[in-house]
Amino acid sequence: MRQLDLQVIGSALRWAREGHPMWLCTVLSTYGSAPRSPGAMLVARGDGQFVGSLSGGCVEEVFLEALACGELRAPAQIVRYGEADGERQRLQLPCGGILQVLVEHRAADEAWIDHLCDLHDALLGQRRLVRDLDLSAGSFTLLADQGGEVARVQDERVQVRIGPALRLILAGLSPVAQYCATYAQAIGCEVIACDPREEMAGFSQPGVHFQAQMPSAFIAAGHSHEATAVVALTHDPRIDDLALMEAVRTPAFYIGAMGSRQTSARRAERLARVGGLSEEQIARIHMPIGLNLGSKTPAEIALAVVADVLRVYHGKPRNVL
């Protein structure tokens, strides 16, 4: 899970239950160099207490000054930080970027508390949701996540995705898998490695949760949710194939297996014949896995894999940069 997101929503929920009105801020987009990415959140009270971050500190300072001056009282509005036109010169960010931020001023009423409870559950649970807000009315609701970008603004409507952090399940260990773990952690993924082989029993890598069991068993136990990517990278069909057979029966957003086109064609035939997978299920599997970067070494292959996982997560077609 994204720990900072959980702290923000947890604090907002606690303050709401104590009767404090609050401001919930969400980064919608960035232009140029910016310190935080879309989806980053901050919650603040009128007395200046806040949890979370929008930038390295400069935006937070200006935002809190605005609250102290009685500004930003609309239920929902979009504010741009970092522009350098006249009076707003002081809003320039040191990095030269621009942030577009959704700022909500919410009363601690029952509807807001219920909404925060749902957001808290989403961060702790296994579903991704979309916050759907009408800027003109100030209303908010939650929708099922259909994929796409983290935040989207269209006319008077704002949509922001929220949910558990990306989970990467490594179905078996290999040099490629270990590099994948390193890259995935760098972009904020929860990484779980599953391998039952005796020679892997002593595996340890900082930040990687190791399960000494068949990946298929781990996946079948309900550990693959909508924000999960399952990657099979061992070249051992006893591990890879069984993991794929289970993964396609889950809502995992990405399933992939390493191998050449010829190897992938044989695997597809085997999964249909032995595993009984349908054409639709086999079509969910990215094989060969990863972007075509001309990768040769384990580190390069892993980079191509994690890049492709991120591409699919953000809803980007393979042929669009």
Automatic annotation (TrEMBL):
Domain XdhC- CoxI, residue spans: 15-82
Protein name in the entry: XdhC family protein
Ranges of residues in domain XdhC Rossmann: 168-309
The organism's taxonomic lineage, starting at the top: Bacteria, Pseudomonadati, Pseudomonadota, Gammaproteobacteria, Oceanospirillales
Source organism: Halomonas dongshanensis
Pfam families per the UniProt record, alphabetical: XdhC_C, XdhC_CoxI
Signal peptide: none
